[in-house]
Write a structure and sequence with these properties.
383 residues, 27% helix, six-stranded mixed sheet, alpha/beta, single chain, 20% strand
């Protein structure tokens, strides 16, 4: 079990984590959520003894990480998948970690098979893709067969098959009674993987509860109702409001109803003689609940592009110029003689060049110019 008590970490005038207390229990996958800059990585570094808390303490199995005997056999972690010597092969990287921790060499081949890298075990890691690097990092975390595992963004760069594999791996490890602590920004994946959530914002604890309780505490379920006519919507809105429901119109013409069960809404619509095209329940997702809770703790927000208003207005009657097919660029090609189609098949009769498009707005008179080169636009009948 991981237990943090009053964790605080300051870097000069900046407080990254403040008075943070929580427990990560075995037998469940615990998700660690929070906006960018909320202190998740700092907290995980303090758990592993990489950063010293300004105040408070954190223990693993009742002991600080630095006092654990043969810690790699008790705690496995993936914080940075790029923390690998690029000149070493995947197998040699894991073999060096195993030798430092007194782990048998046969375990290296076992974990390479678990993460699916056995076929590239002899390749240098600097040639690995982002997803392959993640798999190698997970293999390093599993090397000592530890009882406590910490993962920071473990599915970053993985394809759908890899994401499903990580999800099942986390659940399997937790089912074996291990403590699994996972940080991620993928709400949809956390909803499928995590059993419990710890959510922080600006270094402080916001929630410590099960996924189901988190969603129910930070969202409101509603019913979506659609009628075929405007008069029907008005009649139904009046009937639902009189019965104690709250009705909000949606942009597509549907109604969002809260405070009433679906059977009650159906009975009220029948009593008001209103036909329904849709009556469906809507349950909030983990992402909706998370956004609602953390909206006040986000430090980095995107805005609209201010340059969009600086673009000159399009003049009336303007039409974009015709698209000219691109001439092949392999080698140098002389311009075609007048009347010849540069894209015609061998033996095809030459076609007169297409007339140039007329500009939408008359240009002022200009001195005569030399004859223009023939248009490269492909004639319609040659396509």
């Amino acid at each position: 079990m991981i237990e943090a008590v009053g964790l605080t970490k300051r870097y000069g005038a900046k407080t990254a984590v403040y008075n943070l207390s929580f427990q990560v229990r075995p037998g469940a996958v615990t998700g660690f959520l929070g906006p960018n800059g909320s202190g998740k990585s700092t907290t995980m570094r303090m758990i592993l003894g990489l950063d010293q808390p300004t105040s408070g303490h954190v223990t693993i199995g009742g002991h600080p990480f630095r006092t654990l005997p043969n810690a790699p056999r008790q705690v496995g972690a993936l914080l940075d998948a790029k923390a690998v010597h690029g000149g070493r092969s995947a197998r040699n990287h894991l073999l060096s970690l195993a030798q430092l921790s007194g782990i048998p060499a046969r375990r290296v081949d076992e974990v390479l098979g678990v993460v699916g890298l056995q076929d590239v075990a002899g390749r240098r890691s600097k040639g690995f893709s982002l997803g392959m690097g993640q798999r190698l990092g997970i293999a390093a975390a599993l090397l000592g067969d530890p009882h406590v595992l910490l993962f920071d963004e473990p599915v970053n760069g993985l394809d759908p098959e890899g994401i499903l594999w990580v999800r099942n791996l986390m659940k399997q490890l937790a089912a074996e009674g291990r403590t699994v602590f996972v940080s991620s920004h993928l709400m949809s994946e956390m909803a499928l993987t995590a059993d419990h959530l710890i959510v922080i914002g600006r270094g402080q604890l916001l929630a410590d509860m099960s996924v189901k309780d988190f969603i129910s505490h930070n969202s409101a379920d509603f019913a979506r109702v659609r009628t075929p006519e405007q008069t029907g919507r008005e009649k139904l809105t009046a009937a639902l409001t009189e019965a104690g429901g709250q009705v909000m119109p949606e942009p597509d013409g549907a109604l969002r109803v809260t405070g009433l069960a679906l059977p009650r809404i159906s009975d009220l619509a029948h009593g008001a003689d209103v036909r329904l095209w849709e009556l469906s329940p809507h349950q909030a997702s983990l992402e909706e609940a998370y956004m609602r809770m953390t909206q006040g703790a986000v430090d980095y927000r995107s805005t609209a592009d201010q340059k969009a208003g600086l673009m000159p207005p399009v003049p009336p009657g303007y039409a974009p110029p015709p698209v000219i097919p691109e001439v092949p660029t392999q080698g140098w090609y002389a311009p075609p003689p007048p009347g010849q189609n540069p894209y015609a098949a061998p033996g095809q009769a030459p076609v007169a060049p297409a007339a140039p498009a007329q500009p939408p707005v008359a240009a002022p008179a200009a001195p005569p110019a030399p004859a223009a080169a023939p248009s490269l636009t492909e004639p319609e009948d040659a396509r």
